[in-house]
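TODO from last week: model Phosphoenolpyruvate-protein phosphotransferase.
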Amino acid sequence: MERTLRGVGVSHGVAIGQVRHMGTAVLEPPVTQVSAEEVPREQARAQAAVDAVAADLVARGNLAGGEAQAVLEAQALMAQDPELLADVNRRIESGSSAERGVYDAFAAYRELLAAAGEYLAGRVADLDDVRNRIVARLLGVPMPGVPDSDEPYVLLARDLAPADTALLDPSLVLGFVTEEGGPTSHSAILARAMGVPAVVALAGATGLAEGVVVAVDGGSGEVLVEPSAGRQEELRRLAAERRAALAASSGPGRTSDGFMVPLLANVGGPADVPAALENGAEGVGLFRTEFLFLDDSAKAPGEDKQVEAYRKVLEAFPGGRVVVRVLDAGADKPLEFLTPGDEPNPALGVRGLRTLLEHPEVLRSQLRALARAAEGLTVRLEVMAPMVADGVDARAFAAACREVGLDAKYGAMVEIPSAALRAAAVLREVEFLSLGTNDLAQYAFAADRQVGSLARLQDPWQPALLDLIAAAADAAKAAGKSCGVCGEAASDPLLACVLTGLGVTSLSMGAASIPYVRAALGRASLAHCQRAAEAARAADTAEEARAAAEQVLSGQ
């Protein structure tokens, strides 16, 4: 009998197919004792397994490229964490086998993450995946993962590790549904980059029977179980109409009455540029530069290496706008040479701009590399700092840009509520704002963006979050400066119209979302966007806000 389940839609599109479950296995090794003579051998086995898993993760990242590469390289660093390996060796010296030493050391680190605060709890899935890969290699058993199938299917899992998501074959995996995860989890971001329909945080998803037919709507978050033949045909027709509308939509982003809203792409490196160009990005609204710094956590990359990577992106958008975020290290992106290892709550500690101001030589080197990379190009380079809290932070970043003679606009990311509430003070120091709605929601609601059980508070439709966005946009308008959105909120076509109504001046998103947003804007006038924004802010809940905006825009 047909029934409807609802999770959180994180990647547009509709997928209809039979369910296949992600392979699972109990990878807890037996408790065994090894003799003193066997300790060196077991320690060597552990080291070899760690190195092999790290190399495999890096290789998968190189194949996937873009944002996936940065995520998987971060996992490789996690596998080779020297403190973790030291704990493994200590446990082996106490008589544990290599596999049991790895299992117990990772279990202890898992507890530390939980005790460090909810922000890092979302990294547990990544940590568990690394542990399972190392233990599987030591036990000589296959790593549980994506099922083998000759026929396309919808993948179901409790959660998907980045290493699995990054290499999904879109010709076989029609879409995926997970029981855990959130709208800004690693897997959600990678799904959007791939253009695979996906729904996360769907309670009871793993209880669906193997082989049952489901229809997954990655936009609405609905999963129809056992839809009738007629319903399947209707969904396919609607999906075809949607694809036709997307194909007919081209050119720059604008409302139906001609109000221009530049549509930009979020990229993680040169590998993401082709998709951005293919989907009609008018530039780059968020160029994450962390991928360069993950190659070697012990030291910063040289300027020449940085120049080469930055220039590949900059030269792809002649006459366009490319907004580069300087290194955002700390919290879930620790770097050995930069970030302290003993912070009680890294999410609220030294991260982003705070890290760079403590290591000004790293910031100066990156700014110099960007200046050199832009030499002789017609691109409009803009550079912004992450995790700006107030005008004092903004002033320090602007001073660093001026010190190296950077010929570019410099701005601030609004990810902390204080920066939104006091945006006027920030704008006295910099030339533009860019709203990182993922972290802004996280800090506004004290809700880790990686924890699926907190999805309600991560919802970008929360009226309180819309109020913060409006405060920043109003301040920018008063100052005659721009205020864009580069968080995942911009990838929701309906919310993109509301953001435009709130006064946001540009929208940046994963490349695959650009056609959907362009088509939605093209159907709405600026006045309707503004009315939809007013209706959403007047609501009390995220669900009511979305429904109110939809009613306004559907009735125009």
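Done. The chain is about 50% helix and 15% strand.
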